[in-house]
UniProtKB/TrEMBL annotation:
This is Putative membrane protein. The chain crosses the membrane at residues 124-141, 153-173, 185-208, 220-240, 252-275, 287-307, 313-331, 360-378, 384-401, 413-442, 454-473, 485-509, 515-533, 545-562, 568-585, 592-610, 630-647, 659-675, 695-713, 725-743, 755-778, 785-807, 827-845, 852-870, 882-899. It comes from Rhizobium rosettiformans. It holds the Pfam family DUF2339. Coiled coil: none annotated.
């Protein structure tokens, strides 16, 4: 024990030095500023000026320090002796020089560096002396033990008397010897060092009397150690925060120094609570922040240690609740005039300032000291209900304290996070118990029985957070809109999440009236809260908070729908529920009402993504069009369209654009899903679609691009602008990868149909090609030129593919796979068809003055020339080879003449503007 005392004392001295360094630096800077101002009153250049302050050099610094310590503001310097009547005022003494020191604001000079003599003699000598004094006492006791000079009782008595003498000496020095040194040497005060050394001696003597020699029992040792710790804590009010840390450490370590076979949790935590509250009260009187934060952390650590071998959580929970109450009552919150609180705008910068404001260390240590033991309480087995109630009580108390104290950010946030983590942890424990008891099979009745207390606790916590949040918002939304908005996020999200977790793990999926009624009540309370705040004028300063409450209410009602209905009914009812909010815009001009409809439609899309059949693959009817998919997809699409029409005159452009985009998406999705259902024999599965089905999807995406482009023209929006281009790009990718590649009947061997023209090639190539051509024509003056060219090229490529594959179908029949080879007449027909396409595109390009069509014509003609010279020359024989080259030659000559005529006309016309000015020789 005595070997550890030097290390303990060194640690204490290090903490004292670290904590007080900033104080002495700041004080020295202020003293240097005062000295500079005083010296300015006695200019050196004044011939007739007499010293305004006359005092011995050795007393100057002491007097200045006394003025700073005894007065909150620097006092005026002592007046100079009255000058002789015949002498005039010094020329350098102006009105500014005669002003009080506090009234003048000259630039503050840099604090003078401390001399080596002062550092060694006034500071480190004190520290070294205190350490040497403590070690001397320890070594003296150790020597007496090793030499056997004195008995154990005498040694302990001497050690205790030595500690008391040191404490008394410290108090005597503080009162008599150096009354003015505290201002200059606050971190090297001789009284504090003597008191700390005496306290260490007393702690060591009492512990040795109990733990080594067993002279006293555990009860008396506990009382003596506690009295010593509290005494040191009381003396810290005179000697500073470092000594308070020593007293706190002694009080928190006292239970560890007492060995007992039957520890009493009630006694332990009553003592720890008293120590923590006393530390907080003493720190509040002196304005300390480090020691009370450590006290809170140590009490939380004690709670975690006690929970390892828990027999009763009640004293632990009550001790932590008492710590929360002490934090709430002892430490004041921010006032409404605090710049970090009052009128804080709703921005990330303001939120960051709020998160870093107030006694940050106290708030965070309190929250973690409560939160971590509360979470550990849950890991006591799924059937134990008392720890569950302890968890709920701690989380609710922490949230209530954070709400009650103005400006407290972290207790509220961490309490919310703790509630959500606790719900997840406890639900995971229930699931683990289910697996252990019943294997991997899900026994709904057993799990419901195990989780019934958990369900009640989770729903109760959700109700607590709702009531706390709405009360805080109603009380402070005007003076603190930022934190009120944070509370609205908690109120809107956390209760719904807690209720959802409870329903998912412990609810009855067929029809759960408990969760449904709770969700309905929750949604109604949130709407009532929004209405009450709106009537109190919160719409102007708390608009986002009201919007969040509305979103929380729709989430609660959606949970109620899931608890009472299932499948397609839930999906259909989500859209009318959101539409009811949107129609409420006729009565309330709340900006969040239309966004509720957007949220409802997003929920519909989530359910569609979860199960596209809406009723399950087995229950889906195989009748085309007239099946469950028509109302399941069609009703939300129709309501989305009606919502967009209802908001045609709404002031918010973003929500209007969002509804129009969702209406377009749901409408096209409805058509696409019905087509897929019809073309796959009434089955929706994950198989690769056919070319015909994919062609419909491509047409839908092309149509979506055109619709978004139209919406962008009516209501310009980046969402519509880039969304239309994204849809067009997706359609182009589908063309390249699917129409021309994976689903091409030339590669797959798929039947093209028995009819000559109305067949798979028509829907797979010609119709999408015309769609691209129409979209390119529509977008030519509305979108960037490269994008328009890509659309036009995609249409041209599909048209070219349609002509080419139609030629092959003419010669090969219904099936046109590549493994059937080519006939000579078929090869010649390709050249004729391609030349016809080239000529046709050239004529259209000339007619509409479309350079892109003329370029496409040139590309096709070049491709035809390459085919004739590379393929026809090798594969054709006789008259077909000759006809191929003769026809190509005539076509190329005709194209050349056509281009010459066009280029000549464009060159001559600008020069013949005025016939009277034409040259006479032409």
């Amino acid at each position: 024990m005595f070997e550890l005392l030097p290390l303990i004392l060194i640690g204490v001295l290090f903490v004292i030095n670290r904590g007080a360094t900033k104080r002495i630096d700041r004080l020295e800077k202020e003293l240097g500023d005062v000295r500079e101002r005083l010296l300015r009153l006695n200019p050196a250049g004044g011939a007739n000026a007499e010293p305004l302050i006359a005092q011995p050099a050795g007393q100057e610094r002491t007097e200045i320090a006394e003025q700073v310590v005894t007065s909150p503001e620097p006092e005026e310097p002592s007046p100079a002796p009255a000058p002789a009547p015949q002498q005039s005022e010094p020329a350098s003494l102006t009105d500014d020089d005669t002003m009080p020191v506090a009234a003048r604001t000259p630039p503050a000079p840099a604090a003078p560096a401390e001399s080596l003599e002062n550092l060694l003699g006034a500071r480190w000598a004190v520290w070294a002396g205190g350490l040497a004094l403590a070690l001397g006492g320890v070594f003296l006791v150790r020597y007496s033990i090793e030499s056997g000079l004195l008995g154990p009782g005498v040694r302990l008595t001497l050690a205790a008397l030595f500690g008391l003498v040191l404490i008394a000496a410290g108090e005597l020095v503080r009162r008599k010897a150096l009354p003015k040194a505290e201002a200059l040497y606050a971190n090297a005060m001789v009284p504090g060092i003597l008191t700390a050394a005496g306290a260490v001696s007393l702690f060591g003597a009492i512990y040795a009397a109990h733990g080594i020699y067993e002279f006293i029992g555990p009860t008396l040792a506990f009382i003596l150690l506690a009295l010593t710790a509290f005494g040191v804590l009381g003396l810290s009010l005179l000697h500073g925060q470092a000594l308070a840390g020593l007293g706190l450490g002694g009080s928190m370590l006292t239970p560890l120094l007492i060995s007992t076979t039957a520890p009493n949790l009630w006694t332990l935590f009553i003592y720890l609570t008293v120590a923590q509250v006393a530390t907080s009260f003493a720190a509040r009187l002196k304005g300390w922040l480090v020691v009370p934060a450590i006290a809170q952390a140590l009490l939380g650590l004690w709670a975690l240690v006690a929970l390892i071998d828990m027999t009763d959580i009640t004293p632990i929970a009550l001790s932590l609740i008492a710590m929360i109450a002490a934090w709430l009552l002892i430490w004041p919150g921010a006032t409404k005039d605090d710049p970090a609180v009052a009128g804080s705008p709703l921005s990330l910068d303001a939120l960051g300032r709020r998160m870093a404001s107030g006694p940050l260390g106290l708030d965070i240590t309190l929250s973690l000291a409560v939160l971590l033991p509360a979470l550990v309480m849950l890991d006591r087995g799924p059937t134990v209900s008392l720890p569950l109630f302890g968890f709920a009580a701690l989380i609710a108390t922490l949230a209530a304290a954070g709400s009650a104290r103005h400006g407290a950010f972290w207790p509220t946030i961490l309490a919310s996070v703790g509630a959500l983590l606790g719900a997840v942890v406890k639900s995971g424990l229930i699931l683990q118990a289910q697996i252990l008891l019943f294997g991997f099979g899900w026994d709904e009745t057993a799990v419901t029985a195990l989780g019934e207390p958990v369900m009640l606790i989770l729903l109760g916590l959700a109700a607590v957070f709702v009531l706390l949040g709405l009360a805080q918002i109603r009380r402070r939304f005007a003076e603190d809109p930022l934190f009120s908005t944070v509370w609205s996020v908690i109120v809107a999200i956390l209760p719904v999440l807690l209720a959802t977790i409870s329903f998912v793990f412990y609810g009855v999926y067929a029809r759960d009236w408990s969760h449904a009624l709770f969700a309905i009540a929750l949604g109604a309370v949130l709407i009532a809260g929004a209405e009450l705040l709106s009537r109190q004028g919160a719409q102007s300063v708390f608009r986002r908070g009201i919007d969040l409450l509305l979103v929380g209410s729709i989430a609660a009602f959606a949970l109620a729908l899931h608890a009472l209905t299932d499948g397609i009914i839930t999906t259909i009812l989500l859209a009318p529920l959101g539409f009811a909010y949107l129609m409420a815009t006729r009565k309330r001009h709340w900006s969040g009402l239309p966004w509720v409809m957007v949220a409802a439609l997003a929920g519909v899309l989530v359910r569609i993504a979860w199960d596209p059949t809406l009723v399950g693959p087995e229950a889906l009817s195989q009748t085309p069009i007239l099946n469950q998919l028509l109302p399941g997809y069609g009703i939300p699409a129709l309501l989305a369209l009606l919502s967009a029409y209802e908001l045609r005159n709404w002031s918010g452009a973003r929500v209007r654009n969002a509804l129009q985009g969702l209406a377009s998406l749901l409408g096209l999705l409805t058509i696409a899903i019905l087509v897929r259902h019809a073309m796959n024999g009434g089955v929706l599965d994950s198989s690769v679609p056919t070319l015909g089905e994919q062609s419909i999807y491509t047409l839908l995406v092309v149509g979506l691009s055109g619709i978004l482009m139209t919406l962008d023209l009516k209501s310009p929006s980046p969402v519509f602008r880039y969304g239309s281009m994204l849809a067009g790009g997706i359609a182009i990718l589908q063309t390249v990868s699917l129409h021309l590649g994976a689903l091409n009947p030339y590669f797959t061997g798929e039947s093209t149909g028995s009819w000559p023209l109305i067949n798979l090639l028509l829907i797979g190539y010609l119709l999408p090609g015309l769609g691209y051509a129409g979209l390119a024509y529509y977008a030519r003056d509305k979108r960037p030129l490269p994008y328009v060219i890509l659309l036009a090229l995609s249409g041209a490529v599909l048209g070219f593919a349609w002509v080419t594959l139609s030629v092959r179908r003419f010669w090969q029949g219904e099936f046109i796979p590549y493994w059937k080879g080519f006939e000579q007449a078929e090869t010649y027909t390709y050249s004729v068809a391609w030349l016809a396409i080239g000529v046709g595109l050239l004529a259209l390009g000339s007619r509409f003055d479309a350079r892109s069509l003329r370029i496409a014509s040139a590309v096709i003609v070049i491709l035809t020339v390459a085919k004739v010279f590379l393929i026809d020359m090798a594969n054709l024989e006789g008259v077909l080879r000759a006809l191929s080259f003769i026809g190509l030659g005539f076509v190329l000559i005709g194209i050349g003449l056509f281009y010459q005529k066009i280029l000549t006309g464009k060159t001559v016309r600008p020069a013949a503007v005025d016939e009277d000015e034409a040259p006479t020789g032409i």
